[in-house]
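Course assignment 3, question 2. Fill in each field.
Student: A.L.
Task: Predict the tertiary structure for the chain below.
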Amino acid sequence: MAQTITFPLDREFIALNDLLKLAGVCDSGGAGKALVAAGEVSVDGAPESRKSAKIRAGQVGGVGGTGGVRIKVVAA
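Answer field:
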C-alpha cells in the first residue's frame, strides 16, 4: 500500500518537479525531474512525462506505483 502525503498548496499551482521536492519525495528539483523522466511519476492515475506540469489543488501525484508514495494536493 502506498504511503500518502497531504500537501497544502498556497498558490494556484506548483510545478510537478517542485512538488516532488517540497513533499519530501526527493532531495532536489533535479532529482524530481529525473523521476519524471524515468517514467516513475503519475498524476491522477495517468503517467506524467512533463517535468513542470502544473499541479493544482484536488490532484493526486504518485511515485513508484502501488508500493510507492501518493501526494494528495489540497488547498491551504
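Instructor remarks: Residues 23 and 46 are 19 Å apart (CA to CA). The chain has a mean pLDDT of 94.
Grade: pending
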